[in-house]
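Researcher: Last one for today. Full complex below.
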Amino acid sequence: MKHILPLLLLVVTISACKKKPDPLTPEVPVTKNANGELRISISHVAGNQALQAGKGWYKTENGDSLQIDRLLYFLSNFKLVKADGSMYIEPESYYLVQHKNDTDFTIVIEDVPPGQYSKLVFLLGVDSARNTSGAQTGALDPNSGMFWDWNTGYIMARLEGKSPQSTNHGSVIYHLGGYKGFYSVLREISLDAAMKIEVGKPVNMHIKANALEWFKTPNKIDIAKTSVMMSAGPNASKLADNCADMFKIDHID
Amino acid sequence: MQACKPDPNLDVVADAPFGFTVPEGWPKPFYNFENNAVTKPGFELGRKLFYDPRLSRTNEVSCGSCHQPSAAFAQLDHPISHGVEDKLGTRNSPSIFNMNWHTSFFWDGGVNHLESQPINPIQNPVEMDETLDNIIAKLKADANYPKMFKAAFGDEMINSQRIFKAFAQFMGMMVSSNAKYDKYKRGEAGASFTAAEQAGYTVFKNNCATCHVEPLFTDFSFRNNGLAPTSANDTGRAHITQDAADKYKFKVPSLRNLRYTWPYMHDGRYNNLDDVLNHYTKGITQSGTLDPLLKDGIQLTDQEKSDLLAFLNTLNDEEFVKDPRFQEVN
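Model: Here's the assembly. Have a good evening.
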């Protein structure tokens, strides 16, 4: 911590102010290659198979048939944590992960100070601060359709598809949102991961995210009873608990 | 963190700070243009956007269609405003002034930030029914907008964040603080209350001031004021909180500028203030979520009502509704 924090502050300070350089004092160049890099590839699966949106049919834990058409969610606030608890916190760390068939979604964490790390920690969703601070841009631009305009806040995760068991004209629509207290769907996810970050040698982490976990543990979902969910509340919190264990590290190389 | 403090020598974007001041004796505003320093070009861009019907799907409905300057940015004589293709919602178009003191927006308080407000009517299918991407495409194709974005934000890039920040600059500058009441409170020459106004001020303090707190004349809370639910069965705040205890609660509106903002209440059911006062004296509908303060209604004599109306009339700010800075352009 002692070693990482001053460096981190320096990086944050410089990058946060990049847009308005002081012409009197030349900008201190950020030497990115002084640090390492973690590349996270997320591939979506349904059980043991690659997720084929709009094509594949899958069985949920409850035995319901399901086809998934859309799967997207926010991941934010990535941290690489060392065994002693010190950590590298990625600044401005917001990603909108969108499933595309046969394509991994890649997140690159740059500027990671070299060292041996033991955990990757991130948030499923967008932290409450960014839900309450007005107009955002980049991954948080509300034009993504992942934003509730009438009840301000991001849709943290969204799964849409079809099921013959649905009681809503055959469709399954889950929009998980809500960042406040009891009804927050934000979940911090911590994955054990031994990673040696070195300069000039990016570490590649391969994560498998199992979409069927939405329906599985700890709250088995019966699609006939829960075909549509589009507001914050106790049911959204239950689904969020399910989503929180969809991420498994497959391998690191 | 030193380096992040705005350096006045470097931060000059077109004009210098463009006059937002907190009126004397008013509380600190909730929104004070943090991360969105208000400038004349930013404000002018916000004004142009506010009155531009191209922000709607049909290119016919602007923000100003339902928020008219002469109506203190409500819509006169419309219980419910018309959106695209004359579609109707369920609620009365609220006035716009002193927004920087609001901690939430809309009758149900669903929106939590001034910059996050405009997206709601823009995307609402019965209001403007347009997408942000379409709006950005229209603005990029316009001869003037790219230049205005450059003047306001330093380059011609147009994105939703800049649109919303410009809106916040325009609406945040709308401060109504020059009613007779304000001049009286400031002790300005010639601004004395008549006997009726003074008596009405006392009636107000004794009967209305708990919810309609001075000087904004609202406490920004959500309350059920005993209006009988209509066929629309609008549950108000409960729609946002999913809490049955919030059923039929709506945000307490300001009592400023009532002369311009009729009809009244969240659904515009009352056309005049006599009807409003009669509601409070003898029209309260009892229910589980009725505000306890209104359980027995408000007891007012005819004299007290007449005095109260005289006082409320001192809250009308003609300078504000006629302020040339806020009038329609395009």
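The first helix of chain B runs from residue 40 to 50. Chain B has a mean pLDDT of 93.
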